[in-house]
Every structure is written in structure tokens, then in C-alpha cells.
Design the sequence.
């Protein structure tokens, strides 16, 4: 199975900040890398698919980049509703493994 | 409205069985691969199983192979997860999720999720 490593595991930030979350895969997943946001008690929400494509309805302050084994999620100008847990997931080969998550805290 | 509604969760003893269902609406169901993703209490997300749009291709995470079976009924817009020989470490919220493409192999991600159904394996 492809291993997904996210860093950091948690991150403290303030409203208006710019933050970056990294995700590394144990082998190339080309551009088959997705980012999800999850708030407590809720289902995950797709933010970015295929490394850099913004899912419909997702604010443009979310940006994904990278390819092969190194990927980044950047959130510019944090809003209160952005404080959540973020997961990367490779969808290149099954099983479509997730990273362990990054919790973004105030 | 695009919607997924899971059912079938509950409390089961170790070694027991459960069948989860996920009813889909608002999209062309046979055109989309479907997956089950679970989340153990306080833990991260784990992709459990996936099935192609036709149902002809399936795959599983290693820990459930031989115990879980994913299937779908395209005439009823429903996907199922049959879980046998359940273990304590199968305890989790199970989410049904719609994939953006037909195949389960190289995918664009899961763009619609159900609200989840809770499975508790305990004596």
C-alpha cells in the first residue's frame, strides 16, 4: 500500500493567517492527490482533487499544488470556519490511502 | 439534491455480521464508482472498499479482505457493505462516498459523502 505522510499533525494559527500543510506519498501518485476538510461530528468534504483542482463551491483561498510524491495545501487568509482537520488522500492505486490528518487550531 | 443516506449500523458481538446500505439520489448512479470509508473513534479516515460503476470491479483494504464484501444494485441506486466476522477494531463510523469517475482505480476523489452510520463491535 502507498503510505501518505502529512505534516504537521497539528498547527496553531489565527484568523487572517496563511498556512501550508504538506503531504508526501511513499511512491509517485502522479496528480491523483485529493484534500478533504472535516469538522467534528461531520462527514469529510472534498476541497481539492487531482492535486490542484478546486472542487465546486470551495472558496478560492484554498489552493493545492504538487505532483509525484510531494503535495501542498495552502489556505490564505484563514477564516473562522477553516479551523478543522485536513486529510490528504491518494487515489492513484487502491487502497486509496489517507494521511493521518492535520488539525488546524486557533 | 445529490444525497447519500447510510443505514444498517448498530451494536454487534465479535464474530457477528452486519450489512450496511447506502441509498443514493440526485445523480447518475451507474456512472459513478462508490466507496466505503470508515473512521474509528478519535482516529483518521480509512478507505475500506470500492466498487466500479457497473459493479464489475471491486477492491478492499487488506484488513477487511475475505471478511467484507461491497456490492451495488444499480436498479435501486444502492450500494452495500456486507461485514462478516466482525472484530473490535472494526468499530467506527462508516461513510458511503461517491467517486467522481466510473472506475475505482485511478480516481479524482470522493465528492459526495453520506452522514455516516456507526458500527460498534463489542461483547
Sequence:
Amino acid at each position: 500500500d502507498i503510505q501518505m505522510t502529512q505534516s504537521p499533525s497539528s498547527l496553531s494559527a489565527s484568523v487572517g493567517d496563511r498556512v501550508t500543510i504538506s503531504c508526501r506519498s511513499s511512491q509517485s501518485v502522479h496528480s491523483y492527490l485529493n484534500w478533504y476538510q472535516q469538522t467534528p461530528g461531520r462527514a469529510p468534504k472534498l476541497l481539492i482533487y487531482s492535486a490542484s483542482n478546486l472542487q465546486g463551491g470551495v472558496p478560492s483561498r484554498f489552493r493545492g499544488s504538487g505532483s509525484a510524491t510531494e503535495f501542498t495545501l495552502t489556505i490564505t487568509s484563514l477564516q473562522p470556519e477553516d479551523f478543522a482537520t485536513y486529510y490528504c488522500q491518494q487515489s492513484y492505486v487502491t487502497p486509496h490511502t489517507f494521511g493521518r490528518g492535520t488539525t488546524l487550531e486557533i | 439534491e445529490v444525497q447519500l443516506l447510510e443505514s444498517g449500523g448498530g451494536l454487534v458481538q465479535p464474530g457477528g455480521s452486519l450489512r450496511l446500505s447506502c441509498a443514493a439520489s440526485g445523480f447518475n448512479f451507474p456512472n459513478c464508482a462508490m466507496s466505503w470509508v470508515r473512521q474509528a473513534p478519535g482516529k483518521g479516515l480509512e478507505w475500506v472498499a470500492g466498487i466500479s460503476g457497473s459493479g464489475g470491479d471491486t477492491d478492499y483494504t487488506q484488513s477487511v479482505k475475505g471478511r467484507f464484501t461491497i456490492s451495488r444494485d444499480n436498479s435501486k441506486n444502492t450500494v452495500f457493505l456486507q461485514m462478516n466476522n466482525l472484530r473490535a477494531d472494526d468499530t467506527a463510523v462508516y461513510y458511503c462516498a461517491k467517486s467522481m469517475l466510473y472506475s475505482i482505480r485511478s480516481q479524482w476523489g470522493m465528492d459526495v459523502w453520506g452522514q455516516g452510520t456507526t458500527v460498534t463491535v463489542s461483547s
